[in-house]
């Protein structure tokens, strides 16, 4: 049984070229083509393709929104993003919306076929270029977190550890021989530097960083 596909892209020339390429495979059946997000949602619900190959920048409803709607209303339909957008917020948006794959439009034909078969089998597919973007973003976040940690003064690190151990402001004050007000000021600075909101967040942070043990 061939893999049923719907192609969604607002550029007619690209759609038709893609249809011509994919139609060469006996394992693939093109059910329809659409040029905007709303049309894509309507036709996908009506025709129930196995896979929608989805562009992001489309009229009426963009590809991210359309993917989210299909993921909620027709979870059996899997979406592969095929786009020129390499920015991490587009990648994150599509994956969070429920897309199973993400490729650039300049990918090789064989890679697109591989992505189709991978997604059809129920697995995720990200091109090497997309994986590299995600890894760089993760590394950047780790560096930012480390940068925030190193901004804490030695006294702030002491207070963070004591707060995480469950000490009250008075107990911290007595331990470090500083006023309760000063403890409060340090705590507020710690929250701001680590971009956290509450004592509970500080405790979670301390556990995650190994500053305290659960036993």
How many β-strand stretches?
A: 6
| Count of runs of 4 or more consecutive helical residues | 10
CATH superfamily of the largest domain, please? Response regulator
Which architecture name of the largest domain does CATH use? Answer: 3-Layer(aba) Sandwich
Radius of gyration: 25 Å
- The string of secondary-structure elements, in order, is EHEHEHEHEHEHHHHH
For the termini, the CA-CA separation is: 56 Å
Number of domains: 2
**Biggest beta sheet summary:** 6 strands, parallel
The average pLDDT is 87
In CATH's first tier, which class of the largest domain applies?
Answer: Alpha Beta
- Which strand order does the major sheet show? 2-1-3-4-5-6
What is the strand content?
5-15%
CATH structural fold name of the largest domain? Rossmann fold
Q: Name the structural class.
A: alpha/beta
Low-confidence stretches: none
Describe the 3D structure.
It is a single chain. The chain is α/β, with parallel strands linked by helices. It has helices spanning 12-22, 37-47, 63-73, 88-97, 109-120, 128-150, 154-164, 169-176, 180-194, 199-208; strands spanning 3-8, 28-34, 51-54, 78-83, 101-104, 125-126. The protein has a 6-stranded parallel β-sheet, sandwiched between helices. Helix 2 (37-47) packs parallel to helix 3, helix 7 packs across helix 9 (180-194) and helix 8 (169-176) crosses helix 9 (180-194). The radius of gyration is 25 Å and the shape is elongated.
């Amino acid at each position: 049984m061939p893999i049923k596909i719907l192609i969604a892209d607002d550029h007619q020339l690209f759609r038709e070229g893609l249809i011509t390429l994919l139609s060469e495979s006996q394992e693939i059946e093109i059910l329809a083509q659409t040029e905007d997000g709303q049309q894509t949602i309507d036709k996908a619900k009506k025709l129930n393709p196995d896979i929608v190959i989805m562009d992001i920048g489309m009229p009426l409803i963009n590809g991210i929104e359309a993917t989210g709607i299909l993921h909620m209303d027709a979870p059996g339909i899997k979406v592969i993003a095929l786009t020129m957008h390499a920015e991490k917020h587009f990648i994150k948006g599509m994956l969070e919306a429920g897309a199973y794959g993400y490729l650039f439009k300049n990918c090789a034909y064989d890679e697109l076929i591989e992505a189709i078969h991978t997604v059809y089998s129920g697995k995720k597919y990200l091109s090497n270029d997309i994986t590299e973007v995600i890894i760089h973003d993760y590394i950047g976040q780790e560096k930012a977190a480390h940068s925030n940690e190193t901004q804490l003064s030695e006294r702030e690190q002491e207070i963070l550890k004591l707060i995480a151990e469950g000490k009250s402001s008075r107990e911290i004050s007595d331990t470090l021989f500083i006023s309760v007000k000063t403890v409060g000021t340090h705590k507020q600075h710690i929250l701001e530097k680590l971009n956290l909101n509450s004592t509970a967040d500080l405790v979670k942070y301390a556990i995650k960083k190994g500053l305290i043990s659960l036993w």
